[in-house]
Each structure stands twice: as C-alpha cells, then as structure tokens.
Design brief:
The protein has a single domain (about 1-375), classed as Up-down Bundle (Amino acid/polyamine transporter I). About 75% of the residues lie in helices and about 0% in strands. It contains 17 helices and no strands. Helix 6 (about 110-120) crosses helix 15 and helix 8 packs antiparallel against helix 14. The chain is mainly α and about 475 residues long.
C-alpha cells in the first residue's frame, strides 16, 4: 500500500511544484484577453467555467488509455508505475500544458497550424495529412471498442451499436461545443472519477498484496522488452500525442491564462492517477502478470476491466464501470472527430459559423472514420499506439522551438522530446509493424538517432543565432 500511496503523492507533488515552474517558464499574462473572450463565436469559441473546462479536458484526453493501456502496461510489473508517475510529471503534463497554452497564444489554433508556424512550411502538408489520419484512426478505435463492450453486455449486434455511436459522433462534431460537450461531459467525468475512487477504496482494503512481485525487473509473461514497448503501451496515462489535438479545443474556451495550469497540467495529473489505479488493480486483483495476461489473452483488456469491477463492486458496480469506460471512449472519439473538423476548417478559408460548411466537413471526417472502422481493431490499435507517441514527440519538438523563439528555457520540453525520439524510432525498428530488428540493435539505433535529433536542434538554434549576430 505504501508504494501505491507514495506514487499518488508523487503525482500531486509534481503538480504542486513542477507545474508552477513550467508555468513560470512559459510566462502567463492574466491581463490579456483569451480567444474565448476576444473571438467568441458561440460555436467553438465559448467561455466556460473553469471547473467545467477541467472536467471536459480530463474526459477528452483520457480515452481508453489510462484503463486499457495501464492494464497492458501492468504486464511488465511495478516498473510501469515509474513511467506513469515520471511520464505524467515531466513529459505528459509539460506536453499538454504547452500545447494548450501555445494554442491559446495563437488564437486557439489547431495543432497542424502550430506545427507549421514553429517547425516550418515544409512540414505543413505532411503533418496535416498525418494528423487528420491519426484523428480518424483514433475516432474509429474509440467507436469500435465501446461498440464491442456494449454488444457484449446487451446482446445487441455490434454493427447496431457502431451505427448509434457514429450517429452521436455526427451530432457532437457538428453542434456548438456548449450544447452537448459542455453540458454533459462534466457529469460523465464525475462518473468515471467516482467509479475509480470506489475501486481504489476496495483495492486498498481488500487484503490482497497490491504488488505481489514487488520488483523492477521485467515481469512480462512473453518477455517483451520494457524499452521501448512499455513507453508506447502506456500512453494516455503518462504521455499521449492525442492530448495535443484536444488541448486547443479547451484553449478556445478558457476565460483566463491563469487557469491553464489547472486545466491542462492538472487534467494530465488526474489521468495519471487513474492510470496508476488501473495498473495496480491489474497486478493486485489477478495477483501478478501471469494471471492478468491469461485474462487479457482470452478476452482482451475489456474482460479484465469487467472481471475487476465485478469482483470488487458486484454486478451493478460492474455495469457502472463498463458504462464509465464506454463513455470514456466515446467522449474521446467524438472530440477526435471534432478536432479533425477544426483542423480542416483552420487550414482552409472557411467560416466556422457557417452551418453548411461545418456539415460538409463533418460528413467527410465521419465518412473517413467509418471506412477505417471496417478494418480489424487489433491492427488499427497497433498502428495507433506508435502514431500516437510520434505525434507527442513532434509536439514536444514544436514546443522546444516555441520556447527558444521566445527566449525561454527549453529544457522542460527538450529532455522528454529527445527521450521520446529514442522511444519512437526504437519501436518502429523493433516491432512487427516495422523492421523487426533485434531489440538491442533497435535500441542502439534509436538512442543514436535521438542524439542526432538533439544535435540538429542545437545546430538549428545556435546556427541561426550566429547568423543573426
């Protein structure tokens, strides 16, 4: 219990101290009007209460990551806790805060426009296509997973639930943000937090050891390497590129810059706590990696969620837990499609107030998501994980260039950017979706490429500095 409570305390201390340092480096201007106030259009730019924005941001960024990803990460053993804690504080929190605040300083721009501005014109088309495809991929994943879970508990056909979910996605993508998202998502977030706290309470007083094999050694039953796989498997509970596509949504609703730390950094730390709880639940309830692996191998992470919830909370509690996880997925899926619509609308000279244009773009992005949902979920999920962390890496490098341009200390973004460059390159070199090199070879090349990226960043910065002199 002491290990778990210490990890939770570390997350809160990270928020209390490190987020203040990040905020100070960024340099907030509370007196400056935010886009929500200066560009209010009652569609996407709508000032909302801070507590409501926080809950919406938390629900938007969470998705299935802090539940499914944490359970899959728990297969590696207690070492997963280190990545959740350190990743949330020094990578995920920094990533989400800077992405949100840089967007806010640029009139609530979507990520693709920010990347174009701070990384250059040459990447704009490639990144636009990559980011749109990624959002459609994510939307498809976050439609298929809950549709399958609802089909399992209701007995209704999977395709029926998939059609209902995409119908809802269409409405949520098209309507003003305060009509559905601003009104109902805070309630959904409270349901998720309530279920998480109930499970945590039962887990702490259950009497079973939380970490039956308390060791930092690799405990994965298939002996998969911790680096880089664990750092891609546990994404939304530590660092996720998807968050950078969501933060601009709330940057368009933030009433004051001083609220950014609580909304962007705070939501990431809260998600880290949820991931911490679910990773510990997986190790404790199934008493180690072997038992957890057997359940996931037989029925997927959803079966592990249902088993844990039913074991601790009974049938009614299990239904509420499944519903909260389903809502977690659906609410991230619809904001993924909304982000895709805004990315297209930001790139082309179109009025976001024009219902006809919003309708056309919404139909196009939803159509792309429906086409992707025809593919096998396992295949889509595999590619999504790597693409997600690549997006996080690109965002962190973008943040580095922003901080340098503003003559601020870029180390807060540079260190996680370099580390994640090593993770992403090693992953694609090692994994079956990539080049399938031996782990040691992939790790070595990944480390070398990360150093090369760091050197290129230094050359780009200091070279330009000398040229200006």
């Amino acid at each position: 219990m002491l290990v778990f409570l210490s990890a939770c305390a570390a997350l809160f201390l990270g928020y209390w101290f490190y987020s203040r340092m990040v905020e100070k480096i960024f340099g907030i201007m509370p007196q400056q009007p935010t886009p929500a106030v200066a560009a209010c259009d009652n569609v996407d730019y709508v000032p909302l209460p801070v507590w409501r924005i926080f809950l919406i941001q938390f629900l938007n960024i969470a998705g299935l990551g802090p539940v499914f990803g944490a359970l899959l990460g728990a297969l590696y053993g207690p070492v997963a806790l280190f990545w959740i804690v350190l990743g949330s504080i020094f990578a995920g929190g920094v990533h989400d805060y800077l992405a949100g605040m840089i967007s806010l300083r640029n009139n609530g721009w979507s990520l693709n426009l920010l990347v174009e501005k701070y990384l250059g014109n040459k990447v704009k088309i490639v990144f636009l296509v990559f980011s749109i495809f990624f959002l459609l991929l994510l939307g498809a994943v976050f439609a298929m997973s809950p549709a399958q879970m609802l089909a399992d508990i209701s007995g209704a056909p999977f395709l029926l639930w998939l059609g209902i979910i995409f119908g809802y996605y269409f409405l949520a993508t098209l309507l003003p943000i305060d009509k559905i998202i601003g009104r109902f998502y805070p309630l959904f977030a409270l349901l998720l937090l309530g279920v998480t706290l109930a499970l945590m309470a039962f887990m702490l007083f259950d009497g079973r050891p939380l970490y039956p094999n308390l060791s930092l050694s690799n405990q994965h039953p298939q002996d998969l390497p911790i680096f880089p796989l664990m750092f891609v498997t546990i994404a939304c509970g530590a660092l996720s590129g998807f968050h950078a596509t969501q933060s601009p949504l709330m940057a368009r609703c933030l009433p004051n810059e001083k609220n950014g730390r609580a909304v962007f950094y705070g939501a990431m730390i809260t998600e880290g706590v949820v991931a911490l709880v679910w990773a510990t639940l997986g190790m404790s309830f199934y008493q180690g990696s072997e038992g957890l692996f057997a359940v996931i191998n037989a029925g997927g992470p959803g079966a592990a969620v249902s088993g844990i919830a039913k074991g601790y909370l009974g049938n009614i509690g299990a239904i509420l837990t499944v519903i909260s996880v389903v809502l977690l997925s659906i609410t991230s899926g619809d904001t993924a499609f909304r982000s895709a619509r805004l990315s297209v609308a930001d790139y082309f000279p179109t009025s976001k107030k024009n219902l006809g244009q919003r309708l056309l773009i919404s139909i196009l992005v939803l159509g792309g998501g429906i086409l992707l949902s025809l593919f096998d979920l396992t295949v889509i999920w595999t590619y999504f994980g790597w693409a997600n962390q690549c997006l996080a890496t690109i965002t962190l490098w973008m943040c580095c260039f922003y901080l340098i341009r503003k003559q601020k200390n870029c180390l807060i973004a540079l260190l996680p950017a370099t580390f994640m460059t090593a993770v992403c390159t090693s992953y694609i070199l090692y994994d079956k979706i990539g080049f399938r090199l031996p782990a040691a070879t992939a790790q070595t090349i990944g480390a070398v490429l990360a150093v090369v990226a760091l050197a290129a960043f230094g050359f780009c910065h200091f070279g330009k500095k000398e040229k200006h002199k």
